[in-house]
Write a structure and sequence with these properties.
single chain, 283 residues, alpha/beta, two-stranded antiparallel sheet, 13 helices, 10 strands, globular
């Protein structure tokens, strides 16, 4: 059972949800254009021994908008402010954007972060060269649809039709890569997102002001790094993942083969097994 609430730690109202306290806090941080409900597949598994807490980043869901302040470092301010208000240090689970934020939070506020789980964070090369990747076309199209007033079914239909460059000069549709139910949920999240959240990502400026290597080297707590298959849409290649794991003091790197970026949706059972194994090692 969750109670939806508003965090207002630094004058910016952030929507979130808090589960029953059956153990230490476990803060979930979502990817761009998603929301706290994105982790619904994982909640039942962690609720018996942890207190799950979800957060809608600025510009997402019911959280306040912050035009021009949607770089990774801006989201870090939100996460650290929420962590500071918790009754004890938390484990932080971050997916994609949320994983980058979790790294920075663990480095900048080590006394508030007990451990981190990093699910398929986007690689620095990908973010700096976004125009050279299939994700550029996807995010550009999503920005046009973000915040649209059309119905969820219509928005999901439009998302399914987003053209993406394939191998050998072929063209795919987003609907060829995601099932209809996943697209419907993504449409629900996108409908509630400020289109501007995608602006710095599309411009290749998401990491401006954020020293990734320094942040990684500053992670002294235990870390679990889950890497999606970059041939299936994962955002982190093996070479960079190994380098990141080496930079952190106590990192466990695991490849989840055959699955792209949304590991916790596409391989929920595997994600739960790996997550619970890691969490129980902390108790």
């Amino acid at each position: 059972m969750f109670t939806e609430c508003i965090f207002d730690p630094h004058g910016l109202s952030l929507n979130g949800a808090i589960g029953l306290a059956h153990g230490p806090p476990l803060l979930f941080l979502h990817g761009v254009a998603r929301g706290w409900r994105d982790f619904a597949p994982l909640f039942p598994a962690v609720m018996p021994r942890w207190q799950p807490i979800g957060l809608d980043f600025r510009g997402h869901g019911r959280s306040a908008r912050a035009p021009g302040k949607y770089r990774v470092i801006d989201y870090v301010d939100d996460a650290v402010a929420v962590l500071t208000g918790l009754h004890e240090p938390a484990v932080v689970y971050g997916h994609s954007l949320g994983a980058l934020v979790a790294v920075a939070a663990a480095a900048s506020a080590p006394e508030r972060v007990r451990a981190v789980v990093l699910e398929d964070p986007p690689g620095s090369w990908l973010l700096s060269n976004i125009r050279e990747t299939p994700f550029f076309a996807q995010f550009k199209a999503m920005q046009i649809l973000a915040g649209d007033t059309v119905s969820i079914p219509e928005l999901a239909k439009q998302m399914a039709g987003i053209p993406l460059p394939g191998q050998g000069g072929t063209t795919l549709r987003l609907g060829d890569l995601r099932d209809a139910a996943s697209l419907r949920f993504a449409a629900r999240c996108l409908k509630d997102a400020d289109p501007d959240v995608l602006t710095p990502l599309i411009a290749g400026k998401w990491l401006d002001g954020f020293d990734l290597e320094s942040a990684m080297r500053g992670v002294k707590c235990p870390a679990l790094l889950l890497r999606g298959d970059d041939t299936k849409g994962g955002m982190l290649n093996r070479t960079e993942a190994e380098r990141w794991a080496a930079w952190m003091a106590d990192a466990t790197l695991i490849d989840v083969s055959g699955v792209g970026h949304l590991i916790h949706w596409l391989e929920t059972g595997t994600t739960v097994r790996l997550l619970l194994s890691f969490l129980e090692s902390l108790r």
